[in-house]
Design goal:
CATH topology: Growth Hormone, Chain: A
Number of strands: 0
Distance between the termini: 9 Å
Structural class: mainly alpha
CATH class: Mainly Alpha
Helix content: over 70%
Strand content: under 5%
Order of helices and strands: HHHHHHHHHHHHHHHHH
CATH architecture: Up-down Bundle
Number of helices: 17
Largest sheet: none
Length: about 475
């Protein structure tokens, strides 16, 4: 049976309901990415190297759980839907898994600390996977229209950005306002934000839908075979490299920013102002990049944003401990103008990449793609970026709660500037090989509609065959439709 087209219309209410789901995705990752490493080294007392490895342990598990969750989501059958059932199931675990990250242990044992926080992080990562992978997969099923999908991605990233703005400013205010011990503020913060991240999923569940027939055309094959098969999709290979470059650069920036303000600029009091400025500008610029993506294409918007971000990083050497507040805020505003594209465009591209896969296979495998994308994001962050930061801090002689020597600060700043800069540059270059644009994406959606209606592959126009081979990386004759 051919898959039916989605008959319901995406309205403003749908956009809001769908977007609210990423309050969790954006905010939780922002808090964990910015504060958890700092919390482990400065509050709990875990060594930088072991603190970095906490993230790595979680990502070893993610290497299995993320693609597995995508696979299960594609095959789930329930009266609550194959994607949305996980929104309901995740509400309570979302709050609990976030809170246990910030429970302080009263022990000096590095082994016990490492084991507990590794376990807590694995629980958090598992719940995140259970909810966010079906959520990411849902967008491709809500609409096949290029501009509507951009609006869905824009709504998602708007709410993600809004949550990130709150997560970049309010937690530190809560933490700093709490009385001794310092860990008390982290516990209060975790309860507040744990509830904040959990509640919106009720609205997301009620305000979205999915086709009951959506899972009938999945090709039955081995889980690992299906996971690796998606890398045959040329557009996906390019897309995932663009995604990894952008988000790895973001992870480096966010994880090191607290150390940068505290030890390099010696202005930790500017945390809320600087991050608030960056996130407000980032949030506002997402709307701009939605329009640019609709008009000029997503590759253009991505490269434009990454280059603006690169400019902002090049301005950081002008900042010093004596720099006025407005100058620090200005540099953060420039960076935020660019990071908006880095957080928005990769997710906006995903539904189009899934269309290419459907052309190649005749199956709608949103869950597998969503799982793979989330896996790569968390695997690179946890298995490479965060452990690298921890080992680097220890290697250069960083000492918690102490005055850092000029040599340590110089090495730190080289890493703070150089790491994101190299990744940004790589992302810009890689994007030149991404060929999906508004015109050929629209033609692709039209071709899929023809094929779903029973059309034959051989009846496609010469132009469509050329486009299909260019974006998929395989001969048209190798495309499979049941």
């Amino acid at each position: 049976m051919a898959m039916k087209e989605t008959k319901r219309t995406v309205t403003f209410k749908t956009l809001v309901a769908y977007g609210l789901g990423d309050m969790y995705g954006g905010g939780a990752f922002m808090i964990v990415g910015m504060l958890f490493l700092f919390y482990l080294t400065e509050v709990v007392g875990l060594s930088p190297a072991l603190a970095g490895l906490v993230f790595g342990i979680g990502k070893v598990w993610d290497a299995v759980s993320d693609p597995l969750m995508g696979y299960l989501s594609d095959r789930t059958k329930s009266r609550f839907g194959r994607r949305r059932v996980y929104f309901l199931a995740g509400i309570v675990p979302i709050a609990i898994s976030f809170i246990i990250l910030w429970i302080p242990l009263t022990t000096d044992s590095q082994v016990i600390l490492f084991l507990y926080y590794s376990f807590a992080y694995v629980v958090f990562a598992t719940v995140f996977t259970m909810v966010m992978i079906p959520y990411s997969a849902l967008a491709a099923e809500l609409s096949g229209d290029y501009k509507v999908r951009n609006q869905l991605s824009g709504s998602r990233l708007f709410f993600s950005g809004f949550s990130s703005l709150l997560a970049a400013t309010i937690p530190k205010i809560i933490i700093d306002s709490a009385t001794n011990p310092p860990s008390r503020g982290y516990v209060i913060m975790s309860v507040v934000f744990g509830i904040f991240f959990a509640v919106p999923w009720i609205i997301t569940y009620l305000g979205t839908w999915e086709e009951s027939e959506a899972g009938e055309e999945i090709i039955a094959q081995n889980f690992m075979a299906e996971f690796f098969s998606i890398f045959k999709n040329r557009s996906f290979r390019i897309h995932i490299m663009m995604y990894v470059c952008a988000y790895s650069a973001m992870d480096l920036l966010m994880a090191l920013f607290t150390y940068y303000l505290t030890y390099y600029l010696r202005r930790d009091g500017l945390y809320s102002i600087s991050m608030g400025t960056l996130m407000i500008v980032q949030l506002a610029m997402i709307i701009v990049y939605v329009r640019i993506a609709n008009g000029k294409g997503k590759r253009f918007a991505y490269q434009m944003g990454m280059l603006i971000w690169l400019l902002g990083m090049m301005l950081t050497p002008v900042l010093a401990p004596t720099s006025p507040v407005w100058l620090v805020a200005l540099v953060c505003a420039v960076i935020g103008s660019g990071t908006a594209a880095a957080v928005y465009i990769p997710y906006a591209i995903l539904p189009n990449v899934i269309d290419v896969d459907e052309l190649m296979t005749g199956s709608q495998r949103s869950g597998v793609y969503s799982g793979s994308l989330t896996l790569m994001r968390k695997l690179v962050q946890g298995a490479i970026v965060m452990p690298l930061i921890g080992f680097f801090l220890q290697l250069v002689g960083f000492v918690s709660h102490a005055e850092q020597s000029p040599e340590v600060l110089t090495r730190f700043f080289i890493f703070f500037l150089g790491g994101p800069t190299l990744l940004i540059g790589a992302g810009v270059i890689i994007a030149f090989w991404f060929h999906l644009n508004p015109i050929n994406s629209t033609l692709l959606v039209e071709e899929l509609a023809r094929l779903r209606a029973g059309g034959a592959l051989d009846d496609a126009s010469a132009e469509m065959k050329e486009i299909g081979e260019k974006v998929s990386g395989q001969s048209w004759s190798l495309n499979h439709w049941p």
